[in-house]
Amino acid sequence: MPDRPSVLFVCVHNAGRSQMAAAFLTHLSGGAVDVRSAGSSPPTR
Prior knowledge:
Elements: E1 6-11, H1 17-29, E2 34-39
Parallel strand pairs: 1-2
Protein backbone atom coordinates (compact mmCIF):
# COMPACT_ATOMS: atom_id res chain seq x y z
CA MET A 1 0.00 0.00 0.00
CA PRO A 2 1.56 3.34 -1.02
CA ASP A 3 2.07 6.09 1.55
CA ARG A 4 -0.18 9.12 1.45
CA PRO A 5 1.35 12.35 0.14
CA SER A 6 2.28 14.87 2.83
CA VAL A 7 2.01 18.68 2.67
CA LEU A 8 3.23 21.30 5.16
CA PHE A 9 1.88 24.85 4.98
CA VAL A 10 4.04 27.41 6.80
CA CYS A 11 3.47 31.10 7.51
CA VAL A 12 5.44 33.40 9.77
CA HIS A 13 3.16 33.57 12.82
CA ASN A 14 0.74 30.66 12.15
CA ALA A 15 -2.00 33.26 12.60
CA GLY A 16 -4.49 31.61 10.30
CA ARG A 17 -3.22 31.56 6.72
CA SER A 18 -1.47 28.19 6.92
CA GLN A 19 -4.28 26.79 9.05
CA MET A 20 -6.87 27.80 6.46
CA ALA A 21 -4.78 26.35 3.62
CA ALA A 22 -4.44 23.10 5.56
CA ALA A 23 -8.19 22.97 6.20
CA PHE A 24 -8.98 23.58 2.51
CA LEU A 25 -6.59 20.87 1.32
CA THR A 26 -7.84 18.40 3.93
CA HIS A 27 -11.41 19.03 2.82
CA LEU A 28 -10.70 19.01 -0.93
CA SER A 29 -8.55 15.86 -0.77
CA GLY A 30 -11.13 13.99 1.28
CA GLY A 31 -8.41 12.98 3.73
CA ALA A 32 -6.19 11.46 1.04
CA VAL A 33 -3.35 13.87 1.90
CA ASP A 34 -1.53 14.16 5.24
CA VAL A 35 -1.73 17.93 5.90
CA ARG A 36 0.00 20.01 8.60
CA SER A 37 0.43 23.71 9.29
CA ALA A 38 3.07 25.58 11.25
CA GLY A 39 4.53 28.98 12.02
CA SER A 40 8.20 29.77 11.47
CA SER A 41 8.18 32.33 14.29
CA PRO A 42 4.98 31.81 16.33
CA PRO A 43 4.08 34.43 18.94
CA THR A 44 4.36 33.61 22.63
CA ARG A 45 0.65 34.33 23.27
